[in-house]
């Protein structure tokens, strides 16, 4: 399949960002939980929560800065995030010697805010996430900083595409891949790489019922520029969708399943009880999907699922 994201560009990105990110493990999970929920299929978990900064976001953040010229880097970067992207941009900026100013919600997880500040970023707190993107754009305009978008743009999606590349290089003949959806940049990049290499696989997205903007966008054939968000999975609560990532999702996403907050919490419990992983709701959403709407549907299939983030503290968990 040919998509708006090119495989050669994703491969070049993998080489470019390699010194600054981890090639995360792919774990073939075999136990009674898998037997019950995937039946006689295989389940391979991409442990992307072991990525530097605790989520997949580091890949796109690093690639964004590395693809800027020296003059742009000298003016610094700005971003908006519920936490994971903020941490990733702060990490990438510090690692590559660039100034970062990040917009976050005032109610963001304190551990995430502290982690972001620990990498040296300046944090701007807003009361409403609807204000966050305009605030970021104002910072970019007045200070000349480059915007690192959390899910939109070639550089961001090329970064997430390297996850799909690693999966495809490790496992041949996949039947299905399950990916959480926030803004859509993760599933767009992963899907573009995987469908280029293994075009017959089925790509499932997972969204909260309280943040189902991509499902709605795909249903009506246009990206929504405003999404009502009410979910515990704040990393999946994108307040809007954007043209380029939406267009790639139209090309690669086969189906999206929805989960309520109770199901998302059960996914966190599965990760902890069965795997001893302490994941945020977005990070374990794929497990919730396998225990819920996808249970039994992947019988006999070779499936990969991405555990995408673990930036949560004990009190919030």
TrEMBL record:
The UniProt keyword set, sorted, is:
Lyase, Pyridoxal phosphate
Q: Which PROSITE patterns has this protein been placed in? A: DEHYDRATASE_SER_THR
A single Pfam family it belongs to is PALP
What are the names of the required cofactors? pyridoxal 5'-phosphate
Any GO BP annotation: L-serine catabolic process
Q: Which GO terms describe its molecular function?
A: L-serine ammonia-lyase activity; pyridoxal phosphate binding; threonine deaminase activity
- Domain named Tryptophan synthase beta chain-like PALP: residues: 18-309
Lyase found in the keyword field: yes
> Could you say which protein family the record assigns here?
Belongs to the serine/threonine dehydratase family.
The record's annotation in PANTHER family points to:
L-THREONINE DEHYDRATASE CATABOLIC TDCB, THREONINE DEHYDRATASE, MITOCHONDRIAL-RELATED
Put simply, this protein is called Tryptophan synthase beta chain-like PALP domain-containing protein
Origin organism lineage: unclassified sequences, metagenomes, ecological metagenomes
